[in-house]
Design goal:
mainly alpha, 71% helix, 1% strand
Length: 331
C-alpha cells in the first residue's frame, strides 16, 4: 500500500502473469539455493559421522537422512517461488493452478503419466547401458532413499512423489514455462523449459527422462491451462516409480531387460507406441481444451536467460566431472 500526494491510499496492482525474465531469475535461484543447501547438509552429515564415529556414507545412506534432505532441498523451491512473488508483486494466480477439471480429465492425466513412464523406460535403460559401457558410474534404485518397509515406503511417497510433484511444478511449469510463453512460441517454450528441468537434476544418468517428462508436462499445462493437471501427471509418475522400487526390494521383481540386441528393438518399439498414444490423446482430447493465449513480448531476450542456461549447464557438467572423479578415486 502506498500513498499519493493527496494522501489518498493507492493499492499496488500485482502482476498476474510471468515473463521470461522471471523464468530466468527463478531458475537461477532454484538451482543455486539447493546447491548451497546441499553444502550445509554435507557439513551436517560430516559432523554426525564424526560424533557417531562412523563413515560419512553410513549417515548419507540412511533413509531418514535422505528423506529429510530431499524434502528440504525441494522445499527450497517453495521458498524461492513465494519470496520471488512477494518481491516482484506478482499475484499467486499467475501460476494458473486451475484445479477444477472434469472427472474424466483426471483419468486421461493418469493414463498419460503411465504411458510416458512405461513407454520410455527402456529408452532410458538403453542410455544407462551406454553410460555403463563407457565407464560412467551409475546409480541404482532410488539412491539413498530406497524403501524396504511400509513406513519407509509411505515416507518415500511423500518425499519423492507428492512434494516434488507440487513444488517442482510450481517452479518449472508454473513460473518458468508460463514465463517463457510470454516471449517464445509454444514449441520453443516447451523445449527450453524441459531443457532447464533436465539440467536442474544435475545428473547425466537422469538427463533423458526429465527432458521427455518435462516436455510432456509443459504440453499438459499448455493444453489444459491448468498447473494442477501437470502436478497430477508428475505425482502419478513419481508414485509409480517409488512403488516399483518398493516392490522390487520386497520381491525381486523388476521390469529391467538384459542388454541384448532385441532389447533395443523393444526400447524403440515401446517409445514409438507411447509417442503414438500421446499424440492421439493430444489430438482427440487435449486440443479440444481451451488454454489461455499469452501476448508475446517485443522486448529483447533477457540477458538472465543466457546466464541461466550457462549456469545450469556449468553446474551440470561440474557434477558429472565430480561424479566421475569420485568413482575413479574410489576404484
Amino acid at each position: 500500500m502506498v500513498k499519493n500526494t493527496n494522501d489518498k491510499p493507492l493499492t499496488v496492482v500485482k502482476r498476474n502473469i510471468y515473463n521470461h525474465d522471471d523464468s530466468s531469475k527463478v531458475f537461477l535461484l532454484a538451482i543455486l539455493c539447493p546447491f548451497i543447501l546441499s553444502f550445509v547438509l554435507s557439513a551436517i552429515a560430516n559432523s554426525l559421522a564424526e560424533s557417531w564415529e562412523v563413515k560419512i556414507e553410513a549417515v548419507t545412506s540412511n533413509i531418514w537422512f535422505g528423506v529429510i534432505g530431499t524434502v528440504l532441498l525441494v522445499a527450497v523451491y517453495f521458498a524461492v517461488w513465494l519470496g520471488y512473488n512477494k518481491t516482484k508483486d506478482i499475484s499467486f494466480q499467475a501460476i494458473r493452478l486451475n484445479p477444477k477439471m472434469q472427472w474424466h480429465s483426471y483419468l486421461i492425466l493418469i493414463l498419460v503419466a503411465v504411458v510416458v513412464l512405461f513407454g520410455f523406460q527402456y529408452l532410458v535403460q538403453a542410455f544407462d547401458y551406454f553410460l555403463a559401457g563407457v565407464g560412467y558410474p551409475l546409480e541404482t534404485g532410488l539412491g539413498s532413499i530406497d524403501p524396504t518397509g511400509a513406513g519407509e515406503y509411505i515416507y518415500c511417497v511423500i518425499a519423492m512423489a507428492l512434494v516434488p510433484a507440487v513444488l517442482e511444478e510450481l517452479i518449472f511449469r508454473g513460473v518458468i514455462f508460463n514465463g517463457l510463453r510470454e516471449k517464445f512460441s509454444s514449441p520453443w517454450a516447451i523445449l527450453i523449459s524441459a531443457g532447464l528441468f533436465a539440467l536442474a537434476h544435475q545428473n547425466l544418468q537422469q538427463i533423458i527422462y526429465p527432458l521427455i517428462l518435462g516436455s510432456v508436462l509443459a504440453v499438459v499445462v499448455l493444453r489444459t491451462g491448468s498447473l494442477f493437471a501437470s502436478m497430477v501427471v508428475h505425482f502419478v509418475n513419481n508414485f509409480v516409480v517409488v512403488t516399483m522400487s518398493f516392490v522390487e526390494n520386497l520381491t525381486g521383481f523388476s521390469l529391467t531387460l538384459p542388454n541384448t540386441w532385441w532389447f533395443y528393438l523393444v526400447a524403440l518399439g515401446a517409445a514409438i507406441v507411447a509417442g503414438v498414444i500421446c499424440f492421439i490423446i493430444d489430438k482427440f482430447y487435449f486440443k479440444h481444451k481451451t488454454s489461455q493465449q499469452v501476448e508475446k513480448s517485443k522486448m529483447p531476450v533477457s540477458k538472465y536467460l543466457y546466464i541461466a542456461v550457462a549456469v545450469g549447464l556449468f553446474m551440470f557438467l561440474l557434477n558429472v566431472f565430480l561424479k566421475v572423479m569420485s568413482a575413479t578415486q574410489g576404484a
